[in-house]
């Protein structure tokens, strides 16, 4: 069993089966006590076996286990679908047997079934799992954890006149300037990004473009994919207008020329006056 001091609701652990009971299997939850894995999920497990489970609360506040992997774990941010609403708040689908409550006090606007909410999974004062859409309480505005060029996980949280405010690694706020976007982002979209600049005030400037050689390789792959999708030929070349290149690949003309030059040297494409084609 994972060290009992680290066990917390809303996360996944490998726990040992203690014994079988009428309605399932009891697992060793350490300081949380015995945890029930219901019969419908017990399979062929026997006492002494270990099983990977997610810990959660049932409707009566008891700790339960499920072999299902949640869409988001405690301490993580995700866009979740609204299943239903009640006098308590909205219930969200997080991939577990019991839907996740987003109380009215933790909402930032009205929600309806079929809609979505960008939330973090957390707990209330009694330790019960819930969701919160008030991300400002959980995200830090400044950070000294990263270096320029570091790869980070991003979630699009809020569009502004300058670009998009992003959740960085579930812990920080960062900003992507509009000019850095290769394509429009959607609220709640998860993307891989990079630390573009460490500002003097400690805030993060972000980019979706990989630095250096990695950026060139990614653009080359993007060009090859576009060529294959277009039947092997694109009406773009080293004489094309910068705007046309940017509209197609969200990159500068110089970066485009470097990428197609590398593909030409690798004998993957042929460069003509006003177009490129697969070799």
Would you kindly provide a written description of the structure presented here, covering whatever features stand out?
The chain is α+β, with helices and mostly antiparallel strands and 279 residues long. The protein folds into four domains: 4-66, Nucleic acid-binding proteins (OB fold (Dihydrolipoamide Acetyltransferase, E2P)), CATH 2.40.50.140; 77-136, Nucleic acid-binding proteins (OB fold (Dihydrolipoamide Acetyltransferase, E2P)); 151-207, OB fold (Dihydrolipoamide Acetyltransferase, E2P) (Beta Barrel), CATH 2.40.50; 212-278, Arc Repressor Mutant, subunit A (Orthogonal Bundle), CATH 1.10.10. The chain is built from four helices and 18 strands. It has helices at 39-42, 212-229, 242-249, 253-265; strands at 12-21, 24-28, 34-38, 50-57, 63-66, 77-85, 89-93, 100-103, 116-123, 129-132, 151-159, 163-168, 172-177, 190-198, 204-207, 233-234, 269-271, 276-278. The strands form four sheets. Strands 3-2-1-4-5 form a five-stranded antiparallel beta sheet. A hairpin with a 5-residue loop joins β4 and β5. α2 packs across α4 (253-265). The longest helix is centred in the C-terminal third of the chain and has 18 residues, at 212-229. The protein is elongated and about 75 Å long. The N and C termini lie far apart (56 Å). The model has no long low-confidence stretch (mean pLDDT 90). It comes from Alcanivorax nanhaiticus. Pfam families: S1_2, WHD_CvfB. Residues 221-278 form the Conserved virulence factor B-like winged helix domain. Belongs to the CvfB family. This is GntR family transcriptional regulator.
